[in-house]
Amino acid sequence: MDIAKQIIDQRVNKIIEDNPGIFAKDDPERRRSKAFLLLGVAAYLDIDIAEAEQFITDGGNDGGFDAAYIVEAQDAQLNVVLFQSKYTRNLEKDSNFPANAVEKAVNTVRCVFDPSAEIELNPKSRRKVDEIRSFILDGQIPYVTFVMLNNGLTWNKDGQNHIDYAFKGQEQVRFLHFCHTDIIGYIRRTDPIHTQLSLSGKGVQEDFNYKRVILGRASVKEIYELMERYGDRLLEKNIRRYLGKNTVNDGIVRTLLSDEKRPNFFFFNNGVTMTCEKFSYNGLQERDWIVRINRLQIINGGQTCKIIHQTLKEHPEIDFSQIYILVRLYEVGDGEDVIQDITYATNSQSPVDFRDLKSNDDRQILLEEGAGNLGYIYKRKRDNLSNTNVIPSTVAAESVLAVWREKPHLAKYKRNEFFDKYYADIFDDLNAAQMIMAVLIFRFCDSMRKRTGGGIRELAHRPYSQYYLAYLIGRRVLSDMEIGLDELTHLNFDKVRQYFEDNREALYAWAERVLGETLERYFNGDALEDVDGRTMAAVFRRFDLIERYLKQI
User: Which of 20, 319, 456, 497 falls 20 to 30 Å from 162 in CA-CA distance?
Assistant: First the structure.
């Protein structure tokens, strides 16, 4: 029996055991499939289980995708990652991802990303599709990664034919197989990497300030071999996650595939920056060093490495043996602060996730300690814990930005900037009591979004409005308790929390009514049920609703 499958099956059981509320209405088989989907989404996006739950859409009429992750990128681009999951209890047998499921995924992409196409969807999937289409109608260009998730083999030739027939040569869409062995990498990502790297030609090695550095060039085939062997474990400290193609990534691919430009790849690319605890090589050798490395990490150039790996894998017919890339290797010992400073300084492009870099910030440490004193677990670093009852710093950030910082229009789609552009705005002068209340309010509003009962007006905006409802409820709680935000501390936390817990249904009903009335004014008296879902989704991405209307309430 495949040991990796056994480990994943055990982890699936643990997720079900730790989170009974998520699976309360599901039969045993449905629980296992949903838990595997949660684990797979968390692993691929490199996020916590608690954060992954909000991206799940599976159910009847799900449109061919079980989860969807949407994030704005640079240059009017929209990164969308869709997931389709197949989990089998038969751990003795390897089966391919079904070709008919691949065909369904192909049709999903054709329909979802064409705003004029009709598609039958459940409410959760409809909300995601309307959000995607609202971006497209605003001029954003979608780049789509469809992740086929299972605990078996990739699709067969028939499945690949479906993809090639629909999207061959289409740079906006890629299909990717992600299985149990890939998830194991997520679970084991803290294991140190001890390996070796072959440099070509002459290199430079310098010692200064009690540290050492090597500058040299490596074949892109060396980079391919590293990524093939260790995958995303190499990128643990890298601050950009690879979510799909964009203009920069496409340029790298074009250079690698161009017979004319490929020999000059070394000069067209900024190279790869790596850190390690220790390296060694034969200093008596003039050139072509083989460098032995302890605790290797790629801290800049992670996307380049991913693209090199993907391109070389897809084009085995091309000889890449004489194509090189600049490598900087820093020996910094076990100095975590030094590694974080180098990582931050060498990543000048738009970042995806600065969470790990900020995890040792004093503000994060104080929140962890303060939350613990109030009986809550705050996770300032990513891990693979299966319990959704903890508070990841990402969930805290989006909750605080929406509830207390009056920016619900940014909290949903700016996740990649929480720990960079908006870090000070979110975390300055934030205590644990304020953070926890924001999370409790936001999580309640997010859970209420899934209800099907209520008036027609409320049902029209409920799929998109949880961030705004959380903002309104936060203001109302402070008003009812007759305190300002700065007066919410550990001293009155229990009293404020109890008031919210006792009155949250009534507070939510009030917020829905106020927001519904406000939206009717916003749409000049039009009935909300007549407003197209794409238009409704777009309203909640804009600042004028809160600035011109809600702040006046």
Answer: 319
Helices marked H in 384-492: 393-403, 408-411, 423-427, 432-448, 456-461, 466-481
> For residues 496 and 201, what is the distance between their CA atoms, to the nearest angstrom?
66
Residue 506 identity: A
Q: Are 79 and 143 in contact (CB under 8 A)?
A: yes
Rounded Cα–Cα distance for residues 445 and 511 (Å): 10
Query: For residues 91 and 5, is the Cβ–Cβ distance under 8 A?
Result: yes
- Is 0.85 surpassed by the pTM of this model? no
Distance CA 125, CA 44 (A): 20
pLDDT value for 106? 93
DSSP state of 382: -
Q: Give domain 3-187's CATH number out of 2.20.140, 1.10.10, 3.40.91, 2.60.40.
A: 3.40.91
Cα distance between residue 538 and residue 154, in whole Å: 37
The Cα 11–Cα 35 span in angstroms is: 9
> What pLDDT shows up at residue 351?
42
Cβ neighbours around 224 below 10 Å, total:
18
- Tell me what pLDDT residue 357 has: 63
Are 352 and 243 contacting, i.e. CB atoms less than 8 angstroms apart? Answer: yes
Please give the Cα distance from 491 to 506 (Å, whole number): 25
Q: Using the 8-state DSSP alphabet, how is residue 169 labeled?
A: T
pLDDT tier for residue 349 given thresholds of 50, 70 and 90? very low
The rounded distance, in Å, linking the Cα atoms of 387 and 397 is 19
Domain boundaries, the chain: 3-187, 194-352, 358-552
Residue 500 vs residues 196, 504, 508: alpha-carbon distances, Å: 56, 5, 10
Beta partners for residue 177, in sequence order: 148
